Amino acid sequence: MIERRDALRGLAAAAGALALPSLAQSKAMPRLITISGAVTEVVYALGAEGQLVGTDTTSLYPPAAQKTAKVGYMRQLSAEGLLSLKPDAVIATTESGPPVVLDQLRSAGVKLALINADHSWGEVQQKVQAVGRAADRVAQAGELQRQLDAQWAETQARVATAAGSGKRKPRVLFVLSHSASPQVSGEKTAAHSVIGFAGGVNCLSGFQGYRPMTAEAMASAAPDVILSSNQSIEAHGGVERFWQRPELALTPAYAKRSLVTMDALLLLGFGPRLPAAVGQLHQQLQAT
Q1: Which of 42, 143, 167, 218 has the lowest tally of Cβ within 10 angstroms?
Q2: 263-283 b/e with 16+ CB inside 10 Å = b?
Q3: Do 120 and 189 share a domain, yes or no?
Q4: Which pTM value belongs to this model?
Q5: Confidence of residue 260 (pLDDT cuts 50, 70, 90)
Q6: CATH of the domain at 74
């Protein structure tokens, strides 16, 4: 009887010893905060969502990301709010801030990964690599990158084939209108890059960033197609209300009611869905 008791104790001790490394390993997985909807998408694509302790308010996809603890808008972060979640790493883009908050994170010993938001395919690659390193999932990130690179190559090949057909590239105007004052995109914007990737031409140049949409700008831009986000159209009260803006009546796009809309994060996020977004936009531009 004594020997049996001793044997059972030995088995229990052995089981406990085996369980301890597993518990330690789960506790050691880095706790992550993502500041960018696209970066959050990468976390989910890598199956690392269990490591997320917080995300910013642009993190809306997949829908499960909307249920995560929110740390505020990416440009208006608070060090106190971020640090209260005890992250091991914060993954953000160079569009995040203010800078003093990022400095406070570094001073607190939090690993900070900043991805350069240059609106290129390289930006997407950097997001995948940064999340892979921060989440301790480098191998999975490498496999995801190979899949995405293949998707991107296929999409760009389709765009190149269409360009070689001799058909004139459509002149596209991107309108951002989440408020009562619509703005149009110039160079060095996500919209400018996406239009080019999809085989169109941004009909506004000579300035960087966004400017107010004016009648003069619309008349000189002469877009064939208006590109906007679903959210912008909803903010206007629907498609018909959108077309009622007097500035748009001066454009060729107005005559044909040529409007393409897509989800803002899908279109402008520069995340793992970028190949699909560009492919979808290219198809719609070809149909105009």
Answers
A1: 167
A2: ebbbbbbbbbbbbebbbbbbe
A3: no
A4: 0.87
A5: very high
A6: 3.40.50.1980
- Cβ atoms 215, 269 nearer than 8 A: no
Enter the DSSP assignment of 117.
-
Task: Domain of residue 256: give its range.
Answer: 168-286
Residue keyed to tokens 């910013």: 56
CB 172 within 8 A of CB 200: yes
Asked if 47 and 277 count as a contact pair (C-beta separation under 8 A), the reply is: no
In a shared domain, residues 174 and 240:
yes
Query: What integer best gives the mean pLDDT of the chain?
Result: 90
Within a domain: residue 231? Answer: yes
∠ CA 254-257-260, rounded to 5°: 110
Radius of gyration of the chain (CA): 24
Rounded Cα–Cα distance for residues 86 and 119 (Å) = 30
CA distance 91 to 79: 14
- Tell me: do 37 and 140 sit in the same domain: yes
Tell the residue number behind the tokens 């989800």, with chain if given. 263
**Residue 209 per-residue DSSP state:** S
Residue 10 lies in a domain: no
Q: What angle do CA 258, 185, 63 make, to 5 degrees?
A: 80
Q: How far apart are CA 64 and CA 45, in angstroms?
A: 12
Say if residues 176 and 182 touch (Cβ distance below 8 Å).
yes
* Torsion angle (degrees, nearest 10) of CA 147, 138, 63, 234: -60
Q: What is the amino acid identity at position 155? A: T
Question: Which helix (H) or strand (E) segment is 109 a member of?
Answer: none
- Binned at pLDDT 50, 70 and 90, residue 220 comes out as confident
Q: pLDDT, tens digit, for every residue of 53-88?
A: 999 999 999 999 999 999 999 999 999 999 999 999
Asked if 211 and 186 count as a contact pair (C-beta separation under 8 A), the reply is yes
